């Protein structure tokens, strides 16, 4: 049964901060695990696991195994979404953290092609599948824990805590690979690449402790727990299929564009035709991740002040504009401008990423929300993030120019703008009696379809 007004969970900034911090720590660890794989795929997995291919083919093969992690995300969303919608957000998030951590550590002890031949690539793919399943259930749950602890006027800000995990994980991954790549030309290939994966075991313990102590989502407790409901995936596909499709269309830049600006950019910049040192690229991405990290909450705060959809629209346009100098400067320099270009692009993309947690979560009513947001984000990641580095590599190889990749990026941005304009936003703040936009104020379940409000 639903709580009465007297017994409903009450909003407090202290509770929202705890939920936000837990979301941040968990997503930071899981994105660190994900990004060290992405960076290793761009730098060393080609020769280590696909040595019979030429350089570009080896990179494409490594990116194909990288894409597998995205392709299974929707399945992870269904599995962990079912747990999150039936038993609570918290237990699902604890399990995803453990699955991700274990699979990442096992990558760190994996034999290479030199040791066991083609079985090395098979095992790499299997561990990548486990990573993808875990992330498929992680992001949606972490977002809901942060957003569902907040009333409407603070949702975008607290949703930004979950988004902090991405730049923090990226910063940790690029920093450690930058340090390791500076140890000598062959250090990474000779076994140094294993260190970032093995370090994950320490982070898992910290994340488990933080995440296990956080309270359950008040929206789940008030509107979902104990209620008669159909199987979450059945409800999601039967009732939420339209907003799921809109959500997929919202995310080309926030997911796929992000990997074009980072993972593909690493492979492009270190190609002999461009000739940048991999340490320079990794350092530039570390600086960019730092600026993304320190601007995330400020941009999320602007989402509550200006309108979360308006902020995302600014980011979509800005990302398309600034990706051009990033790629062009990589072949012309000067080096300091490469650092500036990487940072500007990441901040622009942060305008698409910081508010999208709340935008996507509020596409759906609380029933089957975990499954719906995870399915939407997972399918978007499979399509846009999973395939974009591979598609960009093939486009670049076929055309001989990076302008084809820039064109792909621009098309993805245009689709995001169209879907953003039609995306509805559900209000469920009646969990908090008397809150702005609550049922007590007479606006339960309203949908905002204004284009960029």
How are the SSEs placed, and which strands pair?
Elements: H1 13-43, H2 45-49, H3 55-71, H4 73-86, H5 89-108, H6 113-116, H7 119-147, H8 155-181, H9 188-192, H10 194-212, H11 218-223, H12 232-239, H13 241-250, H14 252-269, H15 278-306, H16 308-332, H17 335-353, H18 356-361, H19 369-399, H20 403-422
Structure characterization notes:
This protein is mainly alpha-helical. The protein contains 20 helices and no strands. It has helices spanning 13-43, 45-49, 55-71, 73-86, 89-108, 113-116, 119-147, 155-181, 188-192, 194-212, 218-223, 232-239, 241-250, 252-269, 278-306, 308-332, 335-353, 356-361, 369-399, 403-422. Mean pLDDT is 84; it is low at 1-7 and 431-450.
Quick tags:
453 residues; globular; mainly alpha
> In angstroms, what is the radius of gyration?
21 Å
**What pattern of helices and strands is seen along the backbone?**
HHHHHHHHHHHHHHHHHHHH
**Which parts are unreliable, with pLDDT below 50 for 5 consecutive residues or more?**
1-7, 431-450
End-to-end distance: 34 Å
Strand content: under 5%
Structural class: mainly alpha
What is the global morphology?
Answer: globular
Helical content class? over 70%
What is the averaged pLDDT score? 84
Largest sheet: none
Q: Treating each run of at least 4 consecutive H or I residues as one helix, how many helices?
A: 20
Count the beta strands.
0
Quickly describe the structure.
The protein is an all-alpha fold and 453 residues long.
């Amino acid at each position: 049964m639903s709580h009465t007004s007297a017994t409903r969970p009450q909003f407090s900034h202290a509770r929202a901060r705890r939920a936000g911090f837990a979301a941040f720590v968990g997503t930071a660890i899981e994105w660190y695990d994900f990004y060290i794989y992405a960076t290793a795929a761009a730098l060393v997995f080609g020769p280590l696991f696909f040595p019979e291919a030429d350089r570009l083919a080896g990179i494409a093969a490594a990116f194909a195994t990288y894409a597998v992690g995205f392709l299974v995300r929707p399945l992870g969303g269904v599995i962990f979404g079912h747990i999150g919608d039936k038993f609570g957000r918290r237990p699902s998030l604890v399990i995803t953290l453990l699955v991700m951590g274990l699979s990442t550590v096992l990558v760190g002890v994996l034999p290479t092609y030199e040791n066991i031949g083609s079985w090395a690539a098979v095992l790499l793919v299997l561990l990548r599948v486990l990573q993808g399943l875990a992330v498929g259930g992680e992001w949606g749950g972490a977002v809901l824990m942060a957003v569902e602890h907040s009333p409407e006027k603070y949702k975008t800000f607290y949703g930004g805590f979950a988004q902090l995990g991405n730049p923090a994980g990226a910063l940790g991954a690029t920093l450690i690979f930058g340090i390791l790549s500076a140890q000598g030309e062959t250090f990474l290939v000779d076994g140094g690449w294993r260190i970032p994966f093995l370090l994950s075991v320490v982070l898992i313990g910290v994340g488990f402790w933080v995440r296990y102590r956080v309270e359950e989502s008040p929206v789940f407790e008030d509107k979902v727990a104990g209620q008669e409901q159909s199987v979450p995936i059945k409800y999601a596909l039967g009732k939420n299929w339209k907003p799921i499709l809109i959500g997929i269309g919202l995310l080309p830049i926030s997911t796929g564009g992000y990997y074009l600006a980072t993972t593909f950019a690493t492979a492009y910049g270190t190609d002999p035709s461009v000739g940048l040192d991999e340490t320079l690229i990794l350092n530039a991405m570390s600086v960019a991740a730092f600026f993304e990290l320190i601007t995330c909450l400020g941009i999320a705060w602007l989402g509550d002040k200006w309108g979360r959809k308006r902020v995302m629209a600014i980011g979509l346009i800005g990302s398309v504009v600034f990706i051009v100098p990033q790629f062009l400067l990589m072949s012309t320099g000067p080096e300091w401008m490469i650092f500036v270009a990487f940072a500007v692009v990441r901040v622009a993309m942060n305008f698409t990423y910081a508010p999208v947690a709340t935008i996507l979560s509020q596409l759906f009513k609380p029933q089957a929300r975990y499954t719906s947001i995870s399915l939407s984000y997972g399918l978007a990641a499979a399509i846009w993030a999973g395939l974009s580095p591979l598609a960009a590599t093939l486009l670049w190889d076929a055309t001989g120019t990076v302008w084809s990749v820039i064109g792909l990026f621009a098309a993805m941005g245009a689709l995001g703008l169209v879907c953003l304009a039609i995306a509805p936003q559900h209000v469920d703040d009646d969990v908090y009696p008397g809150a702005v936009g609550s049922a007590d104020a007479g606006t339960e379940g309203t949908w905002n379809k204004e284009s960029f409000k």
